[in-house]
Design goal:
By secondary structure, the chain is α+β, with helices and mostly antiparallel strands. It has one domain: Structural Genomics Hypothetical 15.5 Kd Protein In mrcA-pckA Intergenic Region, Chain A. It is 23% helix and 33% strand. Strand 6 and strand 7 (64-69) form a beta hairpin. The chain is globular and about 30 Å long. It comes from Rosenbergiella nectarea.
Length: 70
Amino acid sequence: MQQFSLGKHSHVDLCDLLKLEGLTESGAQAKIVIDAGEVTVDGKIETRKRCKIHAQQVVSFAGQSIQVIA
């Protein structure tokens, strides 16, 4: 499982997280896979592209998972 640090930020948008971690090639592709219901947050399908992801949440897509840390 990969980890993503928020640093001094309180959250990251879901579509940005997928792009930043290299799970999608672009923000546009991230929005497409989110809209298609292919992404889960804490085990539940998430279709909000700008869903705010906070520390301790786990995002999964295409067999890979990212744990967000503070």
